[in-house]
Write a structure and sequence with these properties.
about 120 residues; mainly beta; seven-stranded mixed β-sheet; four-stranded antiparallel β-sheet; about 0% helix
């Protein structure tokens, strides 16, 4: 079984960049597609981006394509979220998540979740 821990987020000015990392324990990391989701106060959990088991395919949320990218290192059991050109509307708690085998944009299809980390972009 895989367990996930996100790195600390932070406060970043609009237009700035931030990298989040998710570290996985366990020996089956490469069997899981990995996704990032976010949730702002009063809003539903939103799909951000996901990557396939091998890293060869990426799914993008409409609001982040062209600004965010995802990468994984199966040798290190990590997945990273690189966020560029940050906007105030990106402010949310960000979660990494794992889904056995195939990727998905739906939160309910991910069984394993990190604890979440706050990213704040002031107006």
């Amino acid at each position: 079984q895989v367990q996930l821990v996100e790195s600390e987020g932070g406060l970043v000015q609009a237009g700035g960049s931030l990298r989040l990392s998710c570290a996985a324990s366990g020996r089956t990391f490469s069997n899981y597609a990995m996704g990032w989701f976010r949730q702002a106060p009063g809003k539903e959990r939103e799909f951000v981006i996901a990557i396939s088991r091998t890293g060869g395919s990426i799914l993008y949320g409409n609001s982040v394509k062209g600004r965010f990218t995802i990468s994984r290192d199966n040798a290190k059991n990590t997945v990273d979220l690189q966020m560029n050109s940050l906007k105030p509307e990106d402010t949310a708690v960000y979660y990494c998540a794992a889904r056995y085998y195939g990727g998905s944009t739906k939160p309910r299809q991910y069984a394993i979740w990190g604890q979440g980390t706050q990213v704040t972009v002031p107006s």
